[in-house]
Structures are given as structure tokens and as C-alpha cells.
Amino acid sequence: MNSPAERVPHLPGSRYAAELNKGAGDMRFPPELEREYHRFYLTERRSHVRSFNVIMCALFVLACADSVWTAPLQDQLAQHLRLGAIAFAYLTMAWVAYSRRYQRLYLETARYACIVISIAGAVEVAHRIHAGAGEVFALLTPYSIGLYFLAGILYRAALQANIVMIIAFAATLIYLREPPARMAELIAILATTALIGARAFRHQGIRFRRTFLERGLIAEMAVRDGLTGLKNRRAFDEHLTRTWQQALRDRRQLALMMIDVDHFKKFNDRYGHQAGDEALQRIAGVVDSFAKRPLDLAARYGGEELAVILFDVVREHAERLAQQLRASVQDLQIPHVDHAPGVATVSIGVAVVHPTLERSPDGALQLADEAMYAAKRDGRNSVRIFESEYQGLSTGTFRAQ
Questions:
Q1: Which is more confident, 84 or 329?
Q2: Structural domain includes residue 399
Q3: pLDDT digits over 292-318, tens only?
Q4: 249 and 354 in a common domain
Q5: Which of 268, 314, 360, 368 could be bridged to 258 by S-S, CB 3.0 to 4.6 A?
Q6: Contact partners, residue 318, CB within 8 Å, separation at least 6
């Protein structure tokens, strides 16, 4: 079965498709998408993280009781400090896992907490081995695996905690002057465990990231037009309502562009519908390049009509962008012999509006539509902008009663 990325070959601006095409094998996304992935990862792993930290806290309490009361080391103060650091780290991770700040704090908190546990635990186990309790070494190998699969931290953080643990363990054994052969054996076991866990966790991480990308792509496809890859009519209407409300709160202007491909029916009749689809895709790519700010949006409004929402723009800027867009489409040099310039062009109507409680998004759309038809009446391949002609009107449809 093909992946979503293979089923949607034309999806301009999709971060999910771009990363899927790269293979998601580098275990790292661009910053904004990486933050989104962290939220997804933490949401999916929360129940495992909570269970792990509760179990580890309980096991550690029992281990502390056994270690301190039944078999204390000679340097009890240092031992108490190490055990206290481990206890504090586990309790902090558990608290964050159950708090409302889990999404914001857990990854960084757990990263440093696991380093503390790795260092203190490795030093404690090394001292135990030196004191003759060699069986406690068995605690380090499951902890090494747990860092990868149960602690809820990312690959690099888990690998870092494992490396720190091996270094701390080796350094302590050297300090305690353990026999070289014994040291080499224990360090080799620990390093092998860490490497096997790292390899398995990396493959799991790649699968997890791919799942995240595929889910995001499927959700994105639901609001995308299948032919052009632009947002569809439903997404356009929802975005217009949201940006209208924000512009109303922030007292900002909106500009709406309605874009119609000139004589598109004649183009299809002469060149065929496949050529028409390809031409519309290329024009859509140009339109999409003019809506790159966070609150801007480009969409296929219907048929050969495209639309753009621009947030917080003045008339001069909106008109300049519309003229640039019109020229960019003409520069594509898509042959159209049944149209006077000999190439495909667009007519663009622009409505620059200041949202008020007396007006509505539907009225702004009507205004942009009227501007587009005015551009077509002007001979096509032109831009018309409506703003001041309607400043005095207060109806929701921007039309006098």
C-alpha cells in the first residue's frame, strides 16, 4: 500500500509531504514541525511515562531501604547524597508527568533528570560492586533499556544519558582501582546493551516520526484541493471567519483576492482537460507563493477560480501584490492561442476591508467577486481593487439597500 505522500504527488507547501519525501530518517525536523512532533510524541507516550515514573519511584524507595539500612557503604554521606539525587530526579519527573505543564516541561526536565540518575546510579552501582555486591550491576542494564523505551525522552537525550552513565561507571571503577579485566567486562556489557537499545530505539523513532507525518498529511489532505494542492473551499471559509474575528479584535484590515483564469473553457476545449489541469496546477503554485505569512491563505475557490486571504495589509500593498501575481502568471508563458496575449492570464479582483460588527465575511467575498468581474469587463489580464467605493456603507453585504 502506498503512503499518503505517494498518493498525493502535488501538495505545495506541505511540511508533512516534504519530510515524508525525505524519508524522515534524520530524526530531526525543522524547528516548527519538530515542536509539533514533540506535542504529538508526548501525547502518545503520556500513559507510559506516568506508569514508568510511578513504578521507578516505588522500586527506588524499596532499593533505598535495602541499601541504606541493610548494607550501608563506608562513606554513608556520599551514598545518601547520590540516593537523594536519584530520588529527587524521579519525583520531579513523576510530578511533571502528572502536571498541567507536562507538554511544556517534560522533555527538558526528563532529559536532565535522566542524566542525574545516570551519573548518581552508575557511581552508586560501581561502589556496590567494589564492596562485593556484584549482583547490583544487573540494575544498570534494564535502566539503560528503560531510558530508550520507557522514560519518554527522545533518541538523542536517551543516547546522551546512556553515554554519561557508561563514562561515570567507568571513571568510578578506575578511581576505585577495580581489576582491569573485570572493568573491561562490565563496561563492555553496558556499552553493548546501550548500543543495541540505541539501534532499536532509532528504528522505533523513525517509525514514530513517520506515523506523525502520515497522520498530519492525512489531516491536511482533508482541507486540501486534490488537483492544485491549495486549501479547499471549506478550509477557506473557516480561515476567513477566524481571520475576520482576529482583524475585528486587532482593528486590522483584510484583503481578499478573487482570481479567475481568463477564457479557461476555451483553453480546455483546445488543449484538453489534462492540459487544463496542468495549467491550473502551475498557476496555483504561483498563487500559493503569495500567501506565505502565518495568517495568509491561498485556496481553490471553485473551478478555475482561486482566492487569497491577506491579513493586515493596506490598499497599496494589496494592489502591488495583485499586480505582481498577475504578471507572474503571465510570465509562466502557458500557451493559449484563443486569448489575445497568446498565453494564459488571470483577472484579479481585490477587496480591502476593515471588519466591523455591521459587516460580514460574506460581504467581503461579494466585494472581491464584484471587483473580479470588473477586472474581466476591463478586458481581462487586469486587476481591480474595491475599497473606498464602499467605505460609507454599513450593511453586512457591503451593498446599499
A1: 329
A2: no
A3: 888 999 999 989 999 999 999 999 999
A4: yes
A5: 368
A6: 255, 257, 310, 350, 352, 385
